[in-house]
Design goal:
Rna Polymerase Sigma Factor, Chain: A; Arc Repressor Mutant, subunit A; 2 domains
Length: about 180
Amino acid sequence: MAGASRTEPETRATAFHRLTSQHLDASYRLARAIVHDPADAEDATQDALVRAWRKWPTLRDQSLFEHWFTRILVNTCRDHLRRQAVRPTADPTLIASIPSRDDPLAATHEREAMGAAMAMLSPDHRVVVALRFYRDMPVDEIARRLGGPNGTVNSRLHYALKRLNELIDPPERKDTSR
């Protein structure tokens, strides 16, 4: 019996390591989509892992690990964004300088412009956009993971996409020759 209790922490650690290893890359990508900055995404992912380790005994079913950890990660990313004294501002020239489709670097420029525009969104709006489009989750799944109603997720998604559209395609860039 004494030997069983001695190996229990190893089993707990092994299970935690196995599950976090399976989801680490996707978790970092989600954190990066939310917080934008690579170093902040690494910090948020690491902080989420620490929080998850501390809360590990509360996870009753390991098959729900991804759902459980995503919620911890999203909340950690929100905390990181809220702790920032000044919300990062996007470089308007970066957003406004999306090249034509003929440019071989167009995809890279578009990603940079999207990242800059995402950085201008509120934390709650970044979260729903990242979960919807980076994790390809339906609205009802996002609502479940965030612990809120579908209507709130739909509303945040609507206003976030509207703001992104305004940032990426401002009225002064739209064709006014009609």
